[in-house]
Amino acid sequence: MKIPPGYKPATHLRLDEALALAIAMHRANRLDDADELYARILEAAPDNADAVHFRGVLRHQRGGSEEALGLIRRSIALNAAVPDWHNNLGNVLLETGQVDAAADAYEEAARLAPARADIHNNLGVLRREQGRPEESESAYRRAIELDPKNVEAHTNLGRLLNSLGREEESMRCFCEALLLKPGHAPAREALGLAYYTLGRFEEAAQVYRDWLKDEPGNPAARHHLAACSGEGVPARAADDYVEKVFDGFADSFDAKLAHLHYRAPELIAQTVAGLLGAPRRELAVLDAGCGTGLCGPLLAPYARRLEGVDLSERMLARARVRQVYDALAKAELTAFIEGAAPASYDLVISADTLCYFGDLRGVAQATARALRPGGWLVFTVEALDAPEDVKEAGFHLHHHGRYSHRDSYLREVLAEAGLAVGAVTAAHLRIEGGKPVDGWIVSAQACEAAASHSS
After folding, report:
1. For residue 348, what is the domain's CATH number?
2. Tens of pLDDT along 341-396?
3. pLDDT 10s digits, 64-95
4. Which of 103, 199, 307, 339 qualifies as a FRET site for 136, CA 20 to 30 Å off?
5. Number of domains in the chain
6. Taking the mean position of all CA atoms in its chain, how far away is CA 245?
7. What is the pTM of this model?
8. For residue 85, which of 98, 63, 69, 99 has the smallest C-alpha distance?
9. Are residues 175 and 254 in the same domain?
10. Are residues 107 and 115 in contact, defined by beta-carbon separation less than 8 angstroms?
Protein backbone atom coordinates (compact mmCIF):
# COMPACT_ATOMS: atom_id res chain seq x y z
CA MET A 1 0.00 0.00 0.00
CA LYS A 2 1.37 3.42 -0.92
CA ILE A 3 1.70 5.67 2.15
CA PRO A 4 0.07 9.07 1.50
CA PRO A 5 2.26 12.19 1.89
CA GLY A 6 2.28 13.51 5.43
CA TYR A 7 0.86 10.24 6.85
CA LYS A 8 1.21 9.75 10.59
CA PRO A 9 0.29 6.55 12.49
CA ALA A 10 -3.20 6.80 13.97
CA THR A 11 -1.76 6.61 17.48
CA HIS A 12 0.08 9.90 16.85
CA LEU A 13 -2.80 11.80 15.23
CA ARG A 14 -4.75 14.60 16.83
CA LEU A 15 -8.47 13.83 17.16
CA ASP A 16 -9.42 16.03 14.19
CA GLU A 17 -6.71 14.42 12.05
CA ALA A 18 -7.88 10.94 12.99
CA LEU A 19 -11.48 11.83 12.12
CA ALA A 20 -10.42 13.26 8.75
CA LEU A 21 -8.43 10.09 8.02
CA ALA A 22 -11.35 7.86 9.02
CA ILE A 23 -13.72 9.78 6.75
CA ALA A 24 -11.21 9.54 3.87
CA MET A 25 -10.96 5.78 4.38
CA HIS A 26 -14.75 5.57 4.51
CA ARG A 27 -15.09 7.46 1.23
CA ALA A 28 -12.46 5.19 -0.34
CA ASN A 29 -14.60 2.18 0.68
CA ARG A 30 -11.95 0.95 3.12
CA LEU A 31 -14.73 0.11 5.53
CA ASP A 32 -12.81 -2.17 7.91
CA ASP A 33 -10.09 0.42 8.41
CA ALA A 34 -12.59 3.27 8.77
CA ASP A 35 -14.72 1.35 11.27
CA GLU A 36 -11.70 0.51 13.40
CA LEU A 37 -10.54 4.12 13.43
CA TYR A 38 -14.01 5.45 14.26
CA ALA A 39 -14.06 3.00 17.18
CA ARG A 40 -10.68 4.22 18.43
CA ILE A 41 -11.81 7.83 18.18
CA LEU A 42 -14.91 7.01 20.21
CA GLU A 43 -12.81 5.24 22.84
CA ALA A 44 -10.94 8.52 23.32
CA ALA A 45 -13.97 10.80 22.85
CA PRO A 46 -17.26 8.91 23.31
CA ASP A 47 -19.35 12.01 22.57
CA ASN A 48 -17.66 12.96 19.33
CA ALA A 49 -20.84 13.50 17.32
CA ASP A 50 -19.12 13.28 13.93
CA ALA A 51 -17.53 9.91 14.67
CA VAL A 52 -20.80 8.60 16.10
CA HIS A 53 -22.70 9.71 13.00
CA PHE A 54 -20.33 8.45 10.35
CA ARG A 55 -19.87 5.14 12.12
CA GLY A 56 -23.66 4.83 11.99
CA VAL A 57 -23.66 5.50 8.24
CA LEU A 58 -20.93 2.88 7.81
CA ARG A 59 -22.83 0.27 9.83
CA HIS A 60 -25.87 0.80 7.62
CA GLN A 61 -23.70 0.26 4.54
CA ARG A 62 -22.60 -3.06 6.04
CA GLY A 63 -26.15 -4.23 6.69
CA GLY A 64 -26.48 -3.31 10.38
CA SER A 65 -29.37 -0.91 9.98
CA GLU A 66 -30.73 -1.18 13.53
CA GLU A 67 -27.34 -0.37 15.05
CA ALA A 68 -26.95 2.38 12.45
CA LEU A 69 -30.20 4.00 13.47
CA GLY A 70 -29.13 4.02 17.11
CA LEU A 71 -25.81 5.67 16.27
CA ILE A 72 -27.29 8.25 13.89
CA ARG A 73 -30.00 9.18 16.40
CA ARG A 74 -27.35 9.52 19.11
CA SER A 75 -25.30 11.85 16.88
CA ILE A 76 -28.38 14.02 16.36
CA ALA A 77 -28.96 14.10 20.10
CA LEU A 78 -25.40 15.38 20.46
CA ASN A 79 -25.79 17.93 17.65
CA ALA A 80 -29.25 18.46 16.16
CA ALA A 81 -28.26 21.38 13.92
CA VAL A 82 -26.74 19.42 11.01
CA PRO A 83 -29.33 19.01 8.21
CA ASP A 84 -27.33 16.24 6.51
CA TRP A 85 -27.63 14.09 9.60
CA HIS A 86 -31.41 14.30 9.61
CA ASN A 87 -31.29 13.59 5.88
CA ASN A 88 -29.15 10.49 6.47
CA LEU A 89 -31.52 9.37 9.21
CA GLY A 90 -34.37 9.70 6.73
CA ASN A 91 -32.45 7.66 4.16
CA VAL A 92 -31.88 4.76 6.55
CA LEU A 93 -35.46 4.85 7.85
CA LEU A 94 -36.86 4.88 4.32
CA GLU A 95 -34.61 2.05 3.19
CA THR A 96 -35.74 -0.04 6.16
CA GLY A 97 -39.42 0.61 5.43
CA GLN A 98 -40.08 3.07 8.27
CA VAL A 99 -41.75 5.55 5.97
CA ASP A 100 -43.55 7.84 8.43
CA ALA A 101 -40.49 8.18 10.65
CA ALA A 102 -38.44 8.95 7.54
CA ALA A 103 -40.90 11.73 6.71
CA ASP A 104 -40.24 13.37 10.08
CA ALA A 105 -36.48 13.22 9.51
CA TYR A 106 -36.64 14.66 5.98
CA GLU A 107 -39.03 17.42 7.08
CA GLU A 108 -36.61 18.43 9.83
CA ALA A 109 -33.74 18.45 7.32
CA ALA A 110 -35.81 20.66 5.01
CA ARG A 111 -36.64 23.00 7.91
CA LEU A 112 -32.94 23.38 8.72
CA ALA A 113 -31.91 23.80 5.06
CA PRO A 114 -34.96 24.98 3.06
CA ALA A 115 -32.85 25.85 -0.01
CA ARG A 116 -31.27 22.38 -0.36
CA ALA A 117 -32.51 20.78 -3.59
CA ASP A 118 -31.23 17.31 -2.65
CA ILE A 119 -33.36 17.29 0.49
CA HIS A 120 -36.48 18.26 -1.45
CA ASN A 121 -35.64 15.49 -3.94
CA ASN A 122 -35.53 13.02 -1.05
CA LEU A 123 -38.86 14.37 0.18
CA GLY A 124 -40.25 13.62 -3.26
CA VAL A 125 -39.07 10.01 -3.02
CA LEU A 126 -40.61 9.79 0.45
CA ARG A 127 -43.98 11.22 -0.60
CA ARG A 128 -44.18 8.76 -3.48
CA GLU A 129 -43.53 5.89 -1.06
CA GLN A 130 -46.35 7.26 1.10
CA GLY A 131 -48.72 7.14 -1.89
CA ARG A 132 -48.97 10.94 -2.06
CA PRO A 133 -48.10 11.62 -5.73
CA GLU A 134 -49.20 15.27 -5.80
CA GLU A 135 -46.92 16.14 -2.89
CA SER A 136 -44.16 14.03 -4.45
CA GLU A 137 -44.45 15.97 -7.71
CA SER A 138 -44.44 19.27 -5.81
CA ALA A 139 -41.28 18.29 -3.93
CA TYR A 140 -39.45 17.25 -7.11
CA ARG A 141 -40.47 20.48 -8.85
CA ARG A 142 -39.27 22.49 -5.84
CA ALA A 143 -35.92 20.68 -6.04
CA ILE A 144 -35.67 21.57 -9.74
CA GLU A 145 -36.64 25.18 -9.03
CA LEU A 146 -33.84 25.42 -6.46
CA ASP A 147 -31.36 23.61 -8.70
CA PRO A 148 -32.40 23.42 -12.37
CA LYS A 149 -29.39 21.17 -13.05
CA ASN A 150 -30.38 18.52 -10.48
CA VAL A 151 -30.32 15.42 -12.68
CA GLU A 152 -31.72 13.10 -10.00
CA ALA A 153 -34.77 15.33 -9.46
CA HIS A 154 -35.52 15.45 -13.20
CA THR A 155 -35.16 11.66 -13.43
CA ASN A 156 -37.28 10.99 -10.35
CA LEU A 157 -39.97 13.36 -11.56
CA GLY A 158 -39.99 11.53 -14.87
CA ARG A 159 -40.43 8.18 -13.14
CA LEU A 160 -43.30 9.56 -11.07
CA LEU A 161 -45.06 11.02 -14.10
CA ASN A 162 -44.60 7.78 -16.04
CA SER A 163 -46.22 5.84 -13.19
CA LEU A 164 -49.16 8.26 -13.34
CA GLY A 165 -49.67 7.61 -17.05
CA ARG A 166 -48.19 10.97 -18.09
CA GLU A 167 -45.68 9.35 -20.42
CA GLU A 168 -44.99 12.27 -22.74
CA GLU A 169 -44.23 14.56 -19.79
CA SER A 170 -42.06 11.88 -18.25
CA MET A 171 -39.97 11.56 -21.41
CA ARG A 172 -39.35 15.30 -21.42
CA CYS A 173 -37.97 14.95 -17.89
CA PHE A 174 -35.67 12.10 -18.91
CA CYS A 175 -34.48 14.02 -21.96
CA GLU A 176 -33.76 17.07 -19.79
CA ALA A 177 -31.76 14.88 -17.41
CA LEU A 178 -29.75 13.54 -20.34
CA LEU A 179 -29.12 17.01 -21.71
CA LEU A 180 -27.70 17.97 -18.33
CA LYS A 181 -25.73 14.73 -17.94
CA PRO A 182 -25.55 12.74 -21.20
CA GLY A 183 -24.17 9.63 -19.52
CA HIS A 184 -26.76 9.44 -16.72
CA ALA A 185 -27.60 5.73 -16.69
CA PRO A 186 -30.86 5.89 -14.65
CA ALA A 187 -32.36 8.43 -17.08
CA ARG A 188 -31.27 6.43 -20.10
CA GLU A 189 -32.79 3.24 -18.75
CA ALA A 190 -36.00 5.00 -17.72
CA LEU A 191 -36.34 6.68 -21.12
CA GLY A 192 -35.99 3.35 -22.90
CA LEU A 193 -38.62 1.78 -20.66
CA ALA A 194 -40.96 4.75 -21.20
CA TYR A 195 -40.71 4.39 -24.98
CA TYR A 196 -41.33 0.66 -24.66
CA THR A 197 -44.46 1.06 -22.54
CA LEU A 198 -45.85 3.39 -25.22
CA GLY A 199 -45.26 0.70 -27.85
CA ARG A 200 -42.48 2.72 -29.49
CA PHE A 201 -40.16 -0.26 -29.60
CA GLU A 202 -37.64 0.96 -32.16
CA GLU A 203 -37.16 4.23 -30.28
CA ALA A 204 -36.67 2.25 -27.08
CA ALA A 205 -34.05 0.07 -28.75
CA GLN A 206 -32.31 3.15 -30.15
CA VAL A 207 -31.89 4.56 -26.64
CA TYR A 208 -29.94 1.44 -25.69
CA ARG A 209 -27.97 1.37 -28.96
CA ASP A 210 -26.86 4.95 -28.38
CA TRP A 211 -25.92 4.05 -24.82
CA LEU A 212 -23.78 1.17 -26.06
CA LYS A 213 -22.03 3.47 -28.53
CA ASP A 214 -20.99 5.64 -25.59
CA GLU A 215 -20.31 2.72 -23.23
CA PRO A 216 -19.56 -0.44 -25.21
CA GLY A 217 -20.39 -3.49 -23.13
CA ASN A 218 -22.50 -1.66 -20.53
CA PRO A 219 -24.41 -4.57 -18.96
CA ALA A 220 -27.71 -2.72 -18.46
CA ALA A 221 -27.76 -1.28 -21.98
CA ARG A 222 -26.83 -4.64 -23.50
CA HIS A 223 -29.48 -6.53 -21.54
CA HIS A 224 -32.31 -4.08 -22.15
CA LEU A 225 -31.48 -3.77 -25.85
CA ALA A 226 -31.90 -7.53 -26.17
CA ALA A 227 -35.22 -7.31 -24.33
CA CYS A 228 -36.51 -4.45 -26.49
CA SER A 229 -35.28 -5.70 -29.86
CA GLY A 230 -35.48 -9.45 -29.41
CA GLU A 231 -31.98 -9.63 -30.89
CA GLY A 232 -29.17 -11.45 -29.13
CA VAL A 233 -31.33 -12.51 -26.21
CA PRO A 234 -29.04 -14.25 -23.71
CA ALA A 235 -29.85 -17.63 -22.19
CA ARG A 236 -29.69 -15.87 -18.83
CA ALA A 237 -28.90 -12.39 -17.59
CA ALA A 238 -25.16 -11.76 -17.55
CA ASP A 239 -23.37 -11.88 -14.22
CA ASP A 240 -22.27 -8.25 -14.42
CA TYR A 241 -25.85 -7.10 -15.06
CA VAL A 242 -27.30 -9.08 -12.14
CA GLU A 243 -24.53 -8.02 -9.78
CA LYS A 244 -24.94 -4.34 -10.67
CA VAL A 245 -28.73 -4.43 -10.34
CA PHE A 246 -28.75 -6.03 -6.92
CA ASP A 247 -25.75 -4.20 -5.50
CA GLY A 248 -27.61 -1.04 -6.49
CA PHE A 249 -30.62 -1.55 -4.27
CA ALA A 250 -29.39 -3.94 -1.59
CA ASP A 251 -29.86 -1.34 1.15
CA SER A 252 -33.54 -0.86 0.38
CA PHE A 253 -34.32 -4.34 -0.97
CA ASP A 254 -36.34 -5.70 1.96
CA ALA A 255 -38.40 -2.53 2.38
CA LYS A 256 -39.17 -2.30 -1.35
CA LEU A 257 -40.32 -5.92 -1.47
CA ALA A 258 -42.49 -5.45 1.60
CA HIS A 259 -44.08 -2.48 -0.17
CA LEU A 260 -44.77 -4.75 -3.17
CA HIS A 261 -46.38 -7.42 -0.96
CA TYR A 262 -43.64 -9.84 -1.94
CA ARG A 263 -44.76 -13.43 -1.31
CA ALA A 264 -42.06 -15.71 -2.75
CA PRO A 265 -40.37 -16.60 0.58
CA GLU A 266 -43.77 -17.31 2.14
CA LEU A 267 -44.77 -19.47 -0.86
CA ILE A 268 -41.47 -21.35 -0.71
CA ALA A 269 -41.89 -21.97 3.03
CA GLN A 270 -45.47 -23.19 2.61
CA THR A 271 -44.43 -25.57 -0.16
CA VAL A 272 -41.47 -26.93 1.82
CA ALA A 273 -43.72 -27.51 4.85
CA GLY A 274 -46.19 -29.42 2.68
CA LEU A 275 -43.43 -31.61 1.27
CA LEU A 276 -41.35 -32.23 4.39
CA GLY A 277 -43.74 -31.89 7.31
CA ALA A 278 -42.52 -30.68 10.68
CA PRO A 279 -38.96 -29.29 10.66
CA ARG A 280 -36.31 -31.33 12.48
CA ARG A 281 -33.05 -29.51 11.69
CA GLU A 282 -31.66 -32.54 9.87
CA LEU A 283 -31.27 -31.41 6.23
CA ALA A 284 -28.48 -29.93 4.14
CA VAL A 285 -30.18 -26.90 2.56
CA LEU A 286 -29.05 -24.49 -0.17
CA ASP A 287 -30.69 -21.10 -0.67
CA ALA A 288 -29.77 -20.49 -4.33
CA GLY A 289 -29.86 -16.76 -4.97
CA CYS A 290 -30.29 -15.95 -1.29
CA GLY A 291 -30.19 -12.15 -1.67
CA THR A 292 -30.59 -10.46 1.71
CA GLY A 293 -31.59 -13.77 3.28
CA LEU A 294 -35.35 -13.36 3.46
CA CYS A 295 -35.79 -17.14 3.13
CA GLY A 296 -33.09 -17.93 5.67
CA PRO A 297 -35.15 -17.73 8.88
CA LEU A 298 -37.92 -19.76 7.22
CA LEU A 299 -35.51 -22.52 6.15
CA ALA A 300 -33.33 -22.65 9.27
CA PRO A 301 -35.68 -24.93 11.28
CA TYR A 302 -35.21 -27.62 8.60
CA ALA A 303 -31.45 -27.31 8.34
CA ARG A 304 -28.57 -28.93 10.13
CA ARG A 305 -26.55 -26.89 7.62
CA LEU A 306 -27.88 -23.90 5.69
CA GLU A 307 -25.86 -22.40 2.84
CA GLY A 308 -26.58 -19.39 0.67
CA VAL A 309 -25.13 -18.24 -2.64
CA ASP A 310 -25.60 -14.95 -4.47
CA LEU A 311 -23.79 -12.76 -7.02
CA SER A 312 -24.25 -9.52 -5.07
CA GLU A 313 -21.78 -8.89 -2.27
CA ARG A 314 -23.95 -6.09 -0.89
CA MET A 315 -26.95 -8.44 -0.70
CA LEU A 316 -24.78 -11.03 1.04
CA ALA A 317 -23.73 -8.40 3.60
CA ARG A 318 -27.40 -8.05 4.52
CA ALA A 319 -27.82 -11.83 4.70
CA ARG A 320 -24.86 -12.15 7.10
CA VAL A 321 -26.55 -9.84 9.58
CA ARG A 322 -29.42 -12.34 9.95
CA GLN A 323 -26.94 -14.88 11.42
CA VAL A 324 -28.91 -17.91 10.21
CA TYR A 325 -26.59 -19.20 7.46
CA ASP A 326 -23.70 -21.56 8.14
CA ALA A 327 -21.98 -20.41 4.95
CA LEU A 328 -22.54 -17.67 2.38
CA ALA A 329 -20.74 -17.60 -0.98
CA LYS A 330 -20.45 -14.94 -3.68
CA ALA A 331 -20.83 -16.89 -6.92
CA GLU A 332 -23.03 -17.51 -9.93
CA LEU A 333 -25.47 -20.10 -8.68
CA THR A 334 -25.23 -22.65 -11.53
CA ALA A 335 -21.44 -22.67 -11.31
CA PHE A 336 -21.66 -22.96 -7.52
CA ILE A 337 -24.04 -25.92 -7.69
CA GLU A 338 -21.96 -27.58 -10.41
CA GLY A 339 -18.96 -27.27 -8.11
CA ALA A 340 -20.72 -29.03 -5.24
CA ALA A 341 -20.06 -32.69 -4.57
CA PRO A 342 -22.72 -35.06 -5.92
CA ALA A 343 -25.63 -35.65 -3.55
CA SER A 344 -24.67 -32.69 -1.34
CA TYR A 345 -28.14 -31.33 -0.54
CA ASP A 346 -31.48 -32.54 0.70
CA LEU A 347 -33.23 -29.33 -0.30
CA VAL A 348 -32.42 -26.57 -2.80
CA ILE A 349 -34.69 -23.54 -2.96
CA SER A 350 -34.63 -20.47 -5.17
CA ALA A 351 -37.00 -17.56 -4.57
CA ASP A 352 -37.43 -15.23 -7.56
CA THR A 353 -33.87 -15.75 -8.77
CA LEU A 354 -34.52 -17.96 -11.78
CA CYS A 355 -36.53 -15.12 -13.35
CA TYR A 356 -33.08 -13.87 -14.39
CA PHE A 357 -32.58 -17.13 -16.29
CA GLY A 358 -34.21 -17.96 -19.60
CA ASP A 359 -32.85 -21.42 -20.30
CA LEU A 360 -33.15 -23.44 -17.09
CA ARG A 361 -31.57 -26.64 -18.38
CA GLY A 362 -28.12 -26.03 -16.95
CA VAL A 363 -29.26 -25.15 -13.46
CA ALA A 364 -31.81 -28.00 -13.41
CA GLN A 365 -29.19 -30.56 -14.42
CA ALA A 366 -26.67 -29.23 -11.90
CA THR A 367 -29.27 -29.32 -9.13
CA ALA A 368 -30.37 -32.87 -10.00
CA ARG A 369 -26.74 -33.96 -9.58
CA ALA A 370 -26.32 -32.06 -6.32
CA LEU A 371 -29.50 -33.42 -4.68
CA ARG A 372 -29.51 -36.59 -2.64
CA PRO A 373 -32.02 -39.31 -3.60
CA GLY A 374 -35.42 -38.07 -2.53
CA GLY A 375 -34.18 -34.49 -2.18
CA TRP A 376 -36.31 -31.58 -3.33
CA LEU A 377 -35.91 -28.53 -5.54
CA VAL A 378 -38.43 -25.75 -4.85
CA PHE A 379 -38.43 -22.45 -6.76
CA THR A 380 -40.51 -19.58 -8.10
CA VAL A 381 -40.49 -18.01 -11.55
CA GLU A 382 -42.75 -15.57 -13.36
CA ALA A 383 -45.43 -17.02 -15.63
CA LEU A 384 -45.29 -16.56 -19.40
CA ASP A 385 -48.69 -15.56 -20.71
CA ALA A 386 -48.47 -15.70 -24.52
CA PRO A 387 -50.47 -17.48 -27.23
CA GLU A 388 -49.27 -21.01 -27.91
CA ASP A 389 -48.85 -20.20 -31.59
CA VAL A 390 -46.21 -17.61 -30.75
CA LYS A 391 -42.85 -19.21 -31.44
CA GLU A 392 -41.19 -19.17 -28.04
CA ALA A 393 -38.44 -21.27 -26.55
CA GLY A 394 -40.61 -21.72 -23.48
CA PHE A 395 -39.34 -18.48 -21.96
CA HIS A 396 -39.31 -14.80 -22.84
CA LEU A 397 -37.16 -11.82 -21.83
CA HIS A 398 -39.28 -8.77 -21.02
CA HIS A 399 -38.44 -5.06 -21.22
CA HIS A 400 -38.07 -4.86 -17.43
CA GLY A 401 -35.14 -7.26 -17.66
CA ARG A 402 -36.67 -10.44 -16.22
CA TYR A 403 -37.69 -13.68 -17.94
CA SER A 404 -40.99 -15.50 -17.67
CA HIS A 405 -41.58 -19.21 -18.35
CA ARG A 406 -44.31 -21.53 -19.58
CA ASP A 407 -45.45 -24.27 -17.23
CA SER A 408 -45.01 -26.84 -20.04
CA TYR A 409 -41.39 -25.73 -20.47
CA LEU A 410 -40.72 -26.09 -16.74
CA ARG A 411 -42.05 -29.64 -16.72
CA GLU A 412 -40.00 -30.54 -19.79
CA VAL A 413 -36.74 -29.16 -18.43
CA LEU A 414 -37.14 -30.80 -15.04
CA ALA A 415 -37.95 -34.17 -16.60
CA GLU A 416 -34.91 -33.92 -18.89
CA ALA A 417 -32.76 -33.37 -15.81
CA GLY A 418 -34.12 -36.54 -14.21
CA LEU A 419 -36.28 -34.73 -11.68
CA ALA A 420 -39.89 -35.75 -11.08
CA VAL A 421 -42.28 -32.82 -10.92
CA GLY A 422 -44.23 -32.55 -7.71
CA ALA A 423 -46.30 -29.53 -8.74
CA VAL A 424 -46.30 -26.42 -10.92
CA THR A 425 -48.83 -24.18 -9.20
CA ALA A 426 -49.99 -20.71 -10.25
CA ALA A 427 -49.39 -17.98 -7.67
CA HIS A 428 -49.26 -14.19 -7.32
CA LEU A 429 -45.65 -13.37 -6.45
CA ARG A 430 -46.00 -9.65 -5.66
CA ILE A 431 -47.71 -6.43 -6.75
CA GLU A 432 -46.00 -4.35 -9.43
CA GLY A 433 -47.44 -1.24 -11.05
CA GLY A 434 -50.60 -1.82 -9.05
CA LYS A 435 -51.12 -5.26 -10.62
CA PRO A 436 -50.32 -8.76 -9.37
CA VAL A 437 -47.33 -10.50 -10.95
CA ASP A 438 -48.36 -14.00 -11.97
CA GLY A 439 -45.88 -16.78 -11.36
CA TRP A 440 -45.30 -20.43 -10.69
CA ILE A 441 -44.27 -22.16 -7.48
CA VAL A 442 -42.52 -25.34 -8.60
CA SER A 443 -41.39 -28.45 -6.76
CA ALA A 444 -39.44 -31.41 -8.14
CA GLN A 445 -37.82 -34.42 -6.49
CA ALA A 446 -34.60 -36.27 -7.24
CA CYS A 447 -34.31 -39.88 -8.28
CA GLU A 448 -36.71 -42.85 -8.06
CA ALA A 449 -38.26 -41.80 -4.79
CA ALA A 450 -40.00 -39.04 -6.71
CA ALA A 451 -42.17 -41.33 -8.81
CA SER A 452 -45.01 -41.60 -6.33
CA HIS A 453 -45.13 -37.80 -5.94
CA SER A 454 -45.14 -36.77 -9.59
CA SER A 455 -48.25 -35.22 -11.12
Report:
1. 3.40.50.150
2. 999 999 999 999 999 999 999 999 999 999 999 999 999 999 997 655 444 679 99
3. 888 999 999 999 999 999 999 999 999 999 98
4. 199
5. 3
6. 6
7. 0.81
8. 69
9. no
10. no
